[in-house]
Design a protein that fits this description.
18 strands, Enolase-like, domain 1, 3-stranded antiparallel β-sheet, binds D-gluconic acid, 413 residues, alpha/beta, binds magnesium ion, 2 domains, globular
Length: 413
């Protein structure tokens, strides 16, 4: 019997909620057999789409759809320089689509292909934010009311912007407590010290209002200098966080070993990682408690399964990065790994929005704080390409304004 081969690999770029998402569709030599994968890298979506069409599609044409591992290894090697965010995202789209196809051929959801379920659903965490403490409390209360028990709390966005401005507004924003020099360039200004002092105040208020009935998370988003980061890890201990995220940028993770000696706060890092050399030392030295990888950024489900299983050996749990710049298809792939892997931690979920359900059909169901996969073969999702075309993506590079220190120094977002 002739093998089933890849006939076409095609990017679908769409922005139903305003953030560019990239999906890859793989059609095969079997007329009705096709699959979808998430290749989302919001800040460079159109470049990823170009990499898919120009390089990955012709390279993959004619290859046996069964050979997921060999195709992943060969595609990674085909660029010589490897593990960059653009090409990893492109490969993720192809990889996830091939798993979708394998599930369809086997007549089972992908999590069954890997050994079945460890749980029926994945607990999710929601994002509560606000420019005042009362606003944060109100948003936490709303999520508690809706049945969520894991809630990430931020006060004024990442870095504690007093006005809680959103980077997407792209406006010149000055935190009232910040006094930049004359002639300072436009951007989103924040005061790292003020931010670091406000976090314990935020968490104390949430614990005062809700006690220990909910699990709290907080994302530092790499906004502090190392000494301040270590200080924060100690200051938040009394509030019993589920995890503290991105205490350091990828370039400074060597400081984690110091934090581990001084604080018991559970740590989550790796949404910005693209290369195995970044996560390996953190896992094998047990410097983190949760792996936060953005799966399309490392090349898809094939490497993510390997990372999940490695983390299990070191007592580290998964918390794949799942914000609004992961497509609902990417959420479904993350969810299948979470249903399967024994060392699941938590699923991040910012809501589907009003338009995504028009584009992504077969969305996982969320109820009472849990996300449930469907039981259809593969990922069990369809992409309505006509609807997708109604939400064209522009070449937006989020965050639009530069993030700046009080003196105007640009910092990583
Ligand atoms: C998170 C992340 C996101 C990133 C976003 C960048 O924890 O979900 O920090 O909020 O800022 O993915 O595009
Ligand atoms: Mg984060």
């Amino acid at each position: 019997m002739d093998p089933i081969t890849i006939r076409s690999v095609r990017p679908i770029v769409t922005a139903p909620e305003g953030r560019p998402l990239v999906v890859v569709r793989v059609d095969t030599s079997e007329p009705e057999l096709y699959g979808f994968g998430c290749a989302t890298f919001t800040q460079r979506a159109l470049t990823v789409a170009h990499a898919v069409s120009t390089y990955l599609a012709p390279w993959a044409q004619g290859r046996n759809v069964d050979d997921i591992e060999d195709i992943w290894q060969g595609a990674m090697a085909s660029t010589f320089w490897r593990n960059g965010p653009i090409l990893n995202a492109a490969l993720s789209g192809l990889d996830m689509a091939l798993w979708d196809i394998k599930g369809k051929r086997a007549g089972m959801p992908c999590y069954q292909l890997w050994g079945g379920k460890s749980r029926e659903a994945a607990a999710v965490y929601r994002h509560a934010d606000g420019s005042t403490l009362d606003e944060v409390v109100d948003n936490v209360a709303r999520f508690v009311e809706e049945g969520y028990r894991f809630i990430r709390c931020q006060w004024g966005g990442y870095g504690g912007m007093a006005g809680n401005s959103s980077a997407e507004e792209g406006v010149k924003f000055l935190n009232p407590n910040v006094h930049p020099p004359c002639g300072a360039l436009p951007g989103e200004y924040f005061d790292p010290h003020a931010y670091r002092r406000r976090v314990p105040e935020l968490l104390a208020r949430i614990r005062e209002e809700f006690g220990t009935t909910i699990e709290l998370l907080h994302d530092v988003h790499e906004r502090l200098q190392p000494a301040d980061a270590i200080r924060l890890a100690k200051d938040v201990e009394p509030f019993d966080l589920f995890f503290l995220e991105d205490l350091f940028p990828p370039e400074q993770v060597e400081w984690l070993s110091i934090v581990r000696q001084q604080s018991t706060v559970p740590l989550a890092i790796s949404e910005l990682f693209t290369h195995p050399l970044e996560w390996m030392p953190l896992i094998t030295n047990r410097l983190i408690d949760f792996i936060r990888i953005h799966i399309s950024q490392i090349g898809g489900v094939t490497p993510a399964l390997k990372v999940a299983h490695l983390c299990e050996l070191y007592g580290i749990r998964t918390a794949w990065q799942d914000p609004k710049d992961v497509s609902p298809l990417g959420h479904m792939a993350n969810l299948h790994i979470e249903i399967h892997a024994h060392n699941f931690g938590i699923h991040e979920w910012g809501g589907w929005g009003d338009h995504s359900p028009m584009v992504f059909r077969g969305l996982p169901e969320v109820r009472d704080g849990y996300m449930y996969p469907n039981t259809s073969p593969g990922w069990g999702m369809e992409i309505d390409e006509e609807a997708a075309a109604a939400f064209p993506a522009t070449a937006q590079t989020l965050p639009s304004p530069v993030i700046r220190l009080p003196d105007g120094t640009a910092v990583w977002p």
